[in-house]
Amino acid sequence: MVDISVIIPIYNTPKEYLNDSIQSLLSQNYPKLEILLIDDNSNLKETVSTCKKYAKDNKIKYIRLNKNLGVSNARNIGIKSASNNYIMFLDADDWIENNTFRILSNLVEKNPKCQIYMFNSMTVIDGVQNNNKFLPFDDGILTKSNIEELRRQIIFKRSNEYIPNFNCIGVSWAKFYSKKFLIDNHVTFDTELRRAEDHIFILSLLKYDPEIYYLNNYMYNYRRNYSSAVNKHNKNVKVDFRNTLERLEKLIDLKNNPQYTNIFYSRIAEYFILNFYSDFFHIDNKLSYKEFKKEIKILKNMYPYRLLLKYDLSKLITADETRKTIFQTKYCLYPFIYYHFKKKH
């Protein structure tokens, strides 16, 4: 039986969600378990009181941070503070299925040379569990070609023939990590990123050629929360996306790996269009045409979007509407974009 540390980053999580999350761990009665509640300086009283209540359990370690520095910092502190040999990340509003720990423990004992164990999730929407199979494989250790498909999916979700129904494999949860592998290779979450920090974390791990076991079991419940930070209006989102794309480009090293060029540009195109939904035409942003014109000019001159506007758009693996919007931006057809999105929203 392997020893397990579960890291839960927490910030103002409603107590009912936090209860579901922690109870899903404790109810398994797994003896070699450590739970780390990393409170990122929550100011919601019910979150803090719930954490303090559970901290009375000797399996649980409650760490309250002095400043709110984001989920990446909280996870990194969790990694440093973990006492056990295997690590799992659990978001504070998610939960795992019964017997997950025993299934994973048996898996490790049968396949001790692996450093990462991946399993499937269920995306929970309005209380309904929807299966999300990450990869089109059966149980087993991933081959080099399997890992290449995994890598391509993280760079751009729609790059392979198989596309998961909801989340892509690049999430940090629904995985089981050797702590030694993380520490020995100095892999941590990038605290400067506000978008797709999980993707950068997983791609960073792949640089060190881990042995990966893929278990075709649905054991993680991801609660899709439309009020989460990802869905809120963010006027700095173009900078957040740019920072992620810069890290991504550095990791995949296009100069030496030109085979990723098209899927990388497809990822740029995806982020380009997300600026319109997350900022310009978000329901909480009442942008006038004059203000929109100013913002889109800034966007089109920003790296790497200015490179996208010079790229052959016909090669992009993206929706026709995205390609059309990029084309209109390239040729300064701003009124068409503005009134199309205003009408759409």
Biggest sheet, open or closed, and with what strands and sense? 10 strands, mixed
Mean pLDDT: 95
Which series of helices and strands comes N to C? EHEHEHEEHEEEHEHHEHHHHHH
Give the fraction of residues assigned to helices.
Answer: 40-55%
Estimated radius of gyration: 21 Å
Proportion of residues in extended strands: 15-25%
Low-confidence stretches: none
Total helical elements: 13
* CA(first)-CA(last) distance: 53 Å
- Overall outline: globular
Strand segment tally = 10
Task: Label the structural class.
Answer: alpha/beta
Question: Could you characterize what this model shows?
Answer:
The chain is 42% helix and 17% strand. Strands 1, 2, 3, 4, 5, 6, 7, 8, 9 and 10 form a ten-stranded mixed β-sheet that branches. Strand 6 and strand 7 form a beta hairpin. Helix 8 runs antiparallel to helix 9. The chain is globular. The model has no long low-confidence stretch (mean pLDDT 95).
